[in-house]
Amino acid sequence: MAAVEPSTPPLLAMRGVGKKFPGVIALSGVDFTVRAGQIHALLGENGAGKSTLIKVLTGVYAPDEGDIRLASQPIRPASPRDAERLGISTVYQEVNLIPTLSVAENIGLGRQPGKFGFLNWSALRRHARIALARLEIEVDVDAELGSLPLAIQQMVAIARALDLQAKLLVLDEPTASLDEKEVDELFKIMRQLRVAGLGIIFVTHFLDQVYEVTDCITVLHNGEFVGEYPTAGLGRLQLVSKMLGREVSDEEGHAAEGGRSAAVGGRPSSETTVPLLEACQLGRRGAVHPLDLTLRSGEVTGLAGLLGSGRTETARLLFGIDRADTGEIKLRGQPMKISSPRAAVQKGLAFCSEDRKTEGILPNLSVRENIIFALQAKRGAWNTLSRAEQGRLCTHYIQALRIKTGSPETPIKNLSGGNQQKVLLARWLATQPALIILDEPTRGIDVGAKAEIEQLIAKLRADGVAVLFISSEIEEVVRNSTRIAVLRDRRKVAELSGGEMELHRLLHEMAGVAKTHE
Amino acid sequence: MNSLFRQRLPQLVTAGIFLLLFAAAGWRYHEVNFASAPNVANLFIGNACLGIIAVGMTLVIFSGGIDLSVGAVAAFTNIFAAVLIEKHGMNPLLVILASLAIGTAFGAAMGALIHYFKQPAFLVTLAGMFFARGCAYWMSTDSIDIHNELFLKLSRDTAKIGGDTIHPLPAYVFLVVLAFGYVLAQHTRFGRNLLAIGGNEQSALLMGLPVGVTKIAVYALCGAGAALAGLVSTLVSGGDSTYGIGLELDAIATVVIGGTLLTGGRGHMLGTLLGFLIIGTIQSAITFDGSLSSWWTRIITGALLLGFILFQRLLLRATQKRLP
């Protein structure tokens, strides 16, 4: 299947790699093969096991099972340092260098030239200059790293990685914070290295980049190996469906559509009603390209797209967590500035964050305190809720959302993920929002709780609340939405409603392949 | 060149402040020869223990850590040496070696706790401070005069400078320690690894640097420095278990005024020398004045410290502003 004839021994061969964490099987039976002179994309959605696989390869984790060979030699890297010694160098998404030291030092750290333990500074600088010149990067080697643009820091990280006589270079989402020009620079370097015979593993969320620069693709899903494909022979639609863990043929796409109950999402309301919130050319450099989005009361707007397509970024702009560079927002027809989440809450917006562990729950506080938190913030510090009122609210939501908790005073960290999520929903519902943004509300919770959350979304819609629903599970989006905005590579590429909202069509839009005639 | 200038700006500012202070004091107290060689020598001698400790503290702060135990460790070795030599008549050389070994081991143990149990250095060394101070009181609560021949000989060693006779040994020890610290920080992998760990420990780990060993070693070195300072103080003024209360804070102030970032990752050993000179100049000026009380040293130190923290914040902000 590989692009290169199988007779050349692969540079890296990982076979049957498995890794378990308490309660989770992160990898099971994964094969991964990289050849010299090849740029190999490693793709998969959240939880697919990409980063675990990379960490096994670079010695951060020890695999529970499986076999790793580098140039036919069995290896078992015990630490990143060990992996580097073997010739596996990694450049991470966040530049893992020392911002307070100079460029030269960052390239040389740990292997500075010198005698008897003393450093030879001029040799260090010369060495750094050579390493940078090889990549055609022009930068002052005495400059403090932290004072340079991120893209340059990234290049310095690559220069350091290559300086280690690397055979295999792992680039873990290196383009996440780069702009187009910088990405081109990076690709130029990658192609140069490919000619030099390096094996390159490229992890990214941007499909355009995959097709632009890679030779080969390995797809993982839910910790399992889906397949290895030559990039040229795998269409976008096929790729996306493999990443989402399904084989979609035309027939199946329609079958999935048939499974959708039309009543759940509701019909789009008449276009003549005043929309609750209109975003016009809303965008932020490095997050999302300017987009239009209209949210109506009594409608669920689904936001579909692959990981990294700009879904969460869009939600963050609407809620004022990040400031938009362009565009404006109108609320009930009135132009409005949302400068902070606090302002958004005052205006009747609510945001249930994707990352409930770090951005949502206050783990040591009780269910009651977690529920009243946002409402209290909205009312202000001086206008406290009486204890009786708090109790009434909590009892109401614990019953209404069927939150399974010992008592309202149980610390929230003792609840299951699904129940924590419901507490977070209750927190925002207590503020009686006009618009609620649900970012991946069903991630990591069990099937029963998922169904309940879906029922709740339907109820909110019926009550006339505007809902913005973000989910990686596209069936869920199709099932619950009145209309769906599709994002791809940080742009809004389509808005679907009514009969257009079917799985196959959605996959086409997400993958960026024009839908052929039906 | 511009970038080097930028990196060294905190030290340059410190140097400027020092020159200004010294010139002002020299002019103000010129009748009593403030800017004379003997006075400068005495400044080094009088603050030698602080200086020795500040060198160790600089290394620890480079790594993003802090060591609050140094004053107490110095007090422990101070009284430990005095008791063993005077009350038990032990060989002074042996006692010196034992004291240094204890200081080193104590520091290494704290470093190991900080590294392996992932505890904040502040807490571990705070516990170490109480522990070492307690042990010092346990050794003896009386002050002990030294009559040992070797110690007396060392402390009475004299030199002539500008017509005055001084006892320069503490200053020699400090200068040797400073030179050692300078070479270690600027010209060895160990020193650069310290700055790397202070800059970003996670990155240092991923860059394959020996983080654990380096962290333990730097606390061991700092402990050794504190023990050495304790021995020097025994030499100068005899055994006293209340020695060095608050010395750790003076040392931290010296390092920060020297332009080293308290959160680690950025700094220079020569900055610590400048910080040392500034604090010494203020103290010396106040002594020369005679009408000013000693607390003015602390008030001025406080103001300088505050000024420096704000200055570094501004510098950091200016650097970050250049990012897109």
Known CATH architecture of chain B: Orthogonal Bundle
Total helical segments of chain A: 19
Mean pLDDT across every amino acid position of chain A: 83
Strand order of the largest sheet of chain B: 1-2
User: What structural category do the secondary elements of chain B indicate?
Assistant: mainly alpha
Determine Rg of chain A (CA atoms, Å). 25 Å
How far the N terminus sits from the C terminus of chain A, by CA atoms, comes to 31 Å
Query: What is the CATH third-level topology name of chain B?
Result: ABC transporter involved in vitamin B12 uptake, BtuC
The pair of chains with the biggest contact is: A-B, 32 and 34 residues
What Rg of chain B do the Cα atoms give? 20 Å
Largest sheet of chain B: 2 strands, antiparallel
What's the CATH first level of chain B? Mainly Alpha
Low-confidence runs of chain B (pLDDT<50, min 5 residues)? none
Characterize the biggest β-sheet of chain A.
Answer: 6 strands, mixed
Count structural domains of chain B: 1
Order of helices and strands of chain B: HHHHHHHHEEHHHHHHH
> In terms of quaternary structure, what is this?
heterodimer
Strands of chain A, count:
22
- Helix share, percent of chain A: 25-40%
Mean pLDDT of chain B: 89
Would you identify the regions of chain A where 5 or more consecutive residues have pLDDT less than 50? Answer: 250-265
